[in-house]
Amino acid sequence: MIRAFLSLLLTCCLAAPILAAPTQLPLDQGQRQWLEDHGQLRVGAVLQAPYVQLDRRLQQLSGANVEIINWLAKAMGVELVWRTYDSPEELERALRAGQIDLAPGLGQTPAGLRHWLFSDPYLRVSQLLVGERDGGAAVDLEQLDAASLVAVREGSAVADYLRSTYTNLNLKPMANERQALQALLAEQVRYAVLDEAQLSRLSREQEFAGLAVVGDIGFPQLLRIASRRDWPELASIIDVALRSLPAKDLDQLHERWLQPKYPRLGESAGFWQNLSLLLGVLLLSAAIIITWLRRQQRRLERQLLDARHALQLRDAAEEALRLTQFSIDHSTLGILWVNWDSHVRYANRAAEQMLGYRPGSLADRPLADFQPELDMDRWLNLWRRARNSDEGPLSFETRCLRPDGSWLPADVSLSFLRFGSSEYLVVFLSDATERRRAREALEESEARLKGIASNVPGLVFRLERPQAGAVTDFAFIGEGSEGLVGYSASELLDTGRGIRGLVHPDDRDSYWESQTRALAADRDWHWQGRILTRGGQLRWADIKAGARVFDDGRAVWDGVVWDITDNKQIELELAESRAQLRDLSAHLESVREEEKARIAREVHDELGQVLTVLKLETSMCELAFAGLDSGLRERLESMKRLIAQLFQLVRDVATALRPPILDAGISSAIEWQARRFEARTQIPCLVEVPEQLPQLSDAKAVGLFRVLQEALTNVMRHAEAHTVAVRLSEEEDTLCLRISDDGRGFDTTARHGSSFGLVGMRERVLMLGGNLQIDSQPGEGTTLCVCVALDKEKVA
């Protein structure tokens, strides 16, 4: 037993992790971002002690590779999902199926490089030559002859290495390392070759205590961490983490799991058998003595406990009696013990104070002294009811007469009590003065509330939810409902119609939606819509209710339904008037653009023709008469310059009225206007327009162009910008124009004096059926976005 305990203690000590806590890894920003995006990694491991071993009772993994990977996970801040396999072939199939992300303890092979990215080696596992423990010098493999058989695991890379390197060796293949050591003990072979990890695992067994390491074959196994080839970031992070792992921690890990250990002297079977025999004799003698002493102790303790228990019972009974008497005497509830003849046998201090009697003066008094209406017949009736009642105490409200003639409102509860051979009625009295006052105040408050609600020019209501998750319903509707909708409050409540039954059928969906949102979120409720009166008259109503939520989950909504029919009618008329004004403005704008186009054509065609003829006549005069008079030549040259300036002025006027570039499409017009803006202001203007754009109506094209002109004018006058960006894009069925600058910006919520630039742009866009958004803050530039719908027949 002791040997097993010490062995378990040794195992627990060895199982304690030795790797120090990980430090912050020196990763770059990309590697840290990759770890944040991949918070969980799947680890595949082949079950092979002492690298990875599973405690099936605790369902816990341990081993050298498990400690290394757990340390890396803490250093990288990721969560691990372990998956174990019985062979390297199963591990490779899992990798190809995409079930694992990394695997520890693999050796780098040419075939493995097609599937894995390997880290730098973290452990070096030597291949050792093991023989009998004879104290000799190290064995040189090159000096061994064919008579010295060497056991090695069949089909391993070590066997291939020995065959190719030491041709003089006589190798004997074995199925596993244990069989190789057993063959060595049975003197079937002279030496056995196995790695120090397996030797560490097997050397702890008593069977192999006489074996020792006699040489190293010079073919170490380098353990690496393999990761998926499609995740090079993970491979680089693992290399950084392994380089940050202190060398002394790796040495301790190697010594703990891979260093061969041999049984110590104290672990021999004979030593522990003799020690156990001696301890058994001593324990048997001690047990006999302890048994006799315990029998004597139990007898004495039993007698002592019986006496102590009797004393405790008596003390507890006396304490309970004193506590009961004290509780009754000092109770705030009046208590009377009354005999069948209605005389008081006991009264506590609270009852004496309530009824106004001196201490001790209530005893032997009949109840009729402070309850004049209670004659003997009524008392006996109460006695019988309380004695035969199966529903508990009788309770009622009454009033008691005090010696000074005043009355005490009281709540009375009667309970029948049998004590020994005596029977009593226990009367419990409580002062109901404050409760009556509160009830009267509540009744007065409710009456005042109903009076106020009935005189409010609207319908006052209350919605209540008794508890969380319960159905919400109307608890109160004011009498103002009859003046508003023709229904009395009782009709709306008793029939279950409530306010929801008054809503117009076309508005019920919006009513239910707003009410449901308010009730679900326990917030205030607001709704506007149409309701129908008893006579079928349509009226507009505005409902506002404030929410109150209590700690027990109960919630109430107090609100008022206002009649806003007159205001709504004015609002609708105003909206219609604004719509008419906007239509009129759109018509005037269209007429003005058409007039501008007509004037532009006339100016361009008529004045252009006249100027062309004038220029031709001047040239003819110059050819005919310029040679006769030098002064005349100068005059003709001056006239030609004036005609050229007039030509440019005519073009500028025609372009200002309606740029001809609009006929080539809105994209070309935007490019043209941006180049003109750059030439005038020397501010770079970046333009992005689609190569192919659906044709727009002339009104929308002109409207977008005028908005662009106004926006660029504002940039030139106010923005102090360094660059401007203009972008035209097609988004679903809309065409969006965005003008952005990096100027000083402005506060969009502030009013800007008598400037109507933004107002004009907004009205122009509304006339086109689109919308305009302005995003700007002081010091952060301005972005103006205009979106108009494309013509459906042209989009199709």
UniProtKB/TrEMBL annotation:
InterPro entries: HATPase_C_sf, HATPase_dom, His_kinase_dom, PAC, PAS, PAS-assoc_C, PAS-like_dom_sf, PAS_4. The chain crosses the membrane at residues 271-293. Residues 598-792 form the Histidine kinase domain. Pfam families: HATPase_c (PF02518), HisKA_3 (PF07730), PAS_3 (PF08447), PAS_4 (PF08448), SBP_bac_3 (PF00497). Residues 567-594 form a coiled coil. GO terms for molecular function: phosphorelay sensor kinase activity; protein dimerization activity. Residues 445-522 form the PAS domain. The keyword Transmembrane helix applies. It comes from the Bacteria. Residues 394-444, 525-576 form the PAC domain. PROSITE patterns: HIS_KIN, PAC, PAS. GO terms for cellular component: membrane. Residues 1-20 form the signal peptide. This is Putative two-component histidine kinase.
